[in-house]
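To whoever is on call:

I kicked off a structure prediction for a single chain this morning and the downstream step that reads the tokens threw a length-mismatch warning. I double-checked the sequence; it's 118 residues and nothing unusual in it as far as I can see. Pasting both halves so you can look.
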Amino acid sequence: QVQFVESGGGLVQPGGSLRLSCAASGFSFPSFDMSWYRQTPGTERELVAGISTQSYGKNWADSVKGRFTVSRDDEKNIVYLQMNNLKTEDTAVYYCNAGYYRPHFDSWGQGTQVTVSA
């Protein structure tokens, strides 16, 4: 059974940083590209960043380029999202899934809430 458990969200002031983690299970993690998504109420879930197997390639949404970094630990089956210089528009629930540009699995975790506010 595929599972994703996101953590690390919270309330942070503009300009601050957070590091999100996503623990994945139920599939061969090292064999899959992984990605982060975010969603705000009433909007579609959008791709934030992706990382290929063995970290060969990475992609980011234009809105987070230069501020967010994605990484993975294939021994722990965890994908990370380091978010720096956070802006109010980064406020959302953040999710992870397998895949590089689009989610591979239909199942999602509970997500982790990131709120950027003064």
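Update from on-call: the warning came from a stale cache, not from the record. Cleared it. Sanity check on the structure: The longest strand covers residues 18-25.
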